[in-house]
Amino acid sequence: MKRFILLALMLAAMGAVSGTTASISMANVCVRVEEQNTGSWTNATCTEKKAGEPKNWILIQEETLYLGSGQWCARVESGEPSLYKDPQCISKSENGGFIKVYERPTWYVSGNQLKQGTRQIKLQVKGVAILKSVVAGKALKIECKNAVSEGSTIEGNGLGQGQGKGRITFTSCASETCPPHEPIITNQTKAHLGTSTGSQSKYVELFEPTQGENFTEIKLGGACLVTVAAKGTVAAEVIPGEAEGQEGLLNFPEPPIEKVNLEGQEKKVGLKLGAEPAKFSGTFGARLETKEVFGVFGSN
Q1: pLDDT tens for residues 106-141?
Q2: b/e code 242-277 from CB counts within 10 Å (16+ = b)
Q3: How many beta carbons lie within 10 A of that of residue 235, not counting itself?
Q4: Is the pTM above the cut of 0.85?
Q5: Would you state the pLDDT for residue 27?
Q6: 244 and 293 in contact (C-beta within 8 Å)?
Q7: How far apart are CA 94 and CA 82, in angstroms?
């Protein structure tokens, strides 16, 4: 379900008691406006105003009320345009000091935004995880029927996009040409929530090694007899978006996601096995160890 209506009611009630509307401090933060071309900046870091491009970004002081579906009413920074005169964004008034905006993608747990702290999460492959590439001139396809996470978390990141960390162990792996030695264990990885326009879900999670560029090294037998490093970055679709549930999905599609938006900046995504391009695909179920409902909300 979408974020609980109760959360919005609680915020409104808190404002009524104090004489003001409850807010989350976000001084000088660049966010996307709800109504197209009503902001003052043309890029997601609020540093450019290019002629002929829509001004869909704005600097705000604070979020004053959650409106649902990743949308907030916010108080704008001095000098920024606005469309409402009240902290609930009900009464229209140009230059009234408030505007409707979207937040960056962040983790929510049981209806509350995870701004700080961590939650342990368990990932397990559904079906088969597949790695495709070329080794020593031979086409390689490794299929693993078992893959589970170890020490994986989702983490709050203050006013930034949600993040996480962990590692994956792959077993029951097979290849017709070059069977891999098991288990295949990734190095510690870090993850960042982002968005993508070319995937099944607009919300994605980018994975990369915490140190260096190697995810893991794979020792191959059979016709290969070589050890090769899997390195680079991979991205998964977060399914569903704008919803909470006890289980979500991380889907690494084929063809793979090649570009993601992180904190308003486009980042290229790509994986290699040795010197050759590689493709990783598979779907993982994701559950919090606490069995709480969770999900991703917000947009770049």
Answers
A1: 898 998 888 889 999 999 999 999 999 999 889 999
A2: bbbeeebbbbbbeebbebbbbbbeeeebbbbbbeee
A3: 28
A4: no
A5: 58
A6: yes
A7: 6
